[in-house]
Write a structure and sequence with these properties.
Blueprint: H1 11-15, E1 23-27, E2 30-34, H2 39-58, E3 64-66, E4 71-74, E5 77-79, E6 83-86, H3 88-91, E7 102-108, H4 114-127, E8 132-137, E9 142-146, E10 154-156, E11 159-162, E12 171-174, H5 175-178
Parallel strand pairs: 7-8
Antiparallel strand pairs: 1-2, 3-6, 4-5, 6-7, 8-9, 9-10, 11-12
């Protein structure tokens, strides 16, 4: 498929691209195109959905969602995180435009997404004050943990801990279990 000859993409332009199996996103006008992920990506995604879903359910909290999505903080930004936890109040409207607060964003690296996930999208999530951003590296069995103020990530190789702001307990993800598939 040939792409329109433009160097600047708005969120609306990306919404109008064909549904051809690729994931299209734009960050400050830069078009990000990602093909279907590897099977290992999907296995880890499913495991994270189960782990985080069970945690949030046990805490009586809603808000776990996964791509495809339509998260936009402006006319030149539209992203589709692999997995994310939104503010439960913002979910009530059922409109993507009302989702602005992300408590946790998780991107699972693929060869085609590494630069965008580690740099372009990471900077966007920091600018938007996403409280916690996990970059899951399946190949190296580690997770980079970013916060809005971080200049460098914390790299975790054993376990992740995260607590939803409305929860009493922490979620603990053992990386050996996560990557065992």
């Amino acid at each position: 498929m040939s792409m329109p000859a433009t160097l600047y993409y708005s969120a609306e332009m990306v919404r109008n691209l064909p549904d051809d199996g690729n994931r299209y996103e734009t960050v400050h006008g830069e078009l990000l195109v990602t093909p279907s992920p590897r099977m290992s990506h999907q296995e880890v995604l499913l495991e994270l959905i189960l782990m985080l879903g069970n945690y949030l359910k046990s805490e009586g909290v809603r808000g776990l969602l996964c791509s495809p999505a339509d998260i936009s903080w402006g006319p030149d930004t539209l992203v589709q995180p692999d997995l994310f936890v939104v503010d439960a109040e913002e979910m009530k409207s059922k409109a993507w435009a009302d989702v602005q607060t992300l408590h946790l964003v998780i991107e699972i690296l693929s060869p085609s997404s590494t630069r965008a996930d580690r740099f372009t999208k990471r900077r966007l999530y920091q600018e938007q004050h996403v409280a916690t951003y996990w970059i899951v590296d399946v190949d190296h069995q580690q997770v980079e943990i970013w916060t809005p103020e971080a200049r460098f990530p914390v790299v975790e190789r054993e376990r992740l801990t995260w607590r939803h702001p409305a929860a009493a307990a922490e979620c603990v993800v053992e990386l050996a279990t996560l990557f065992s598939g």
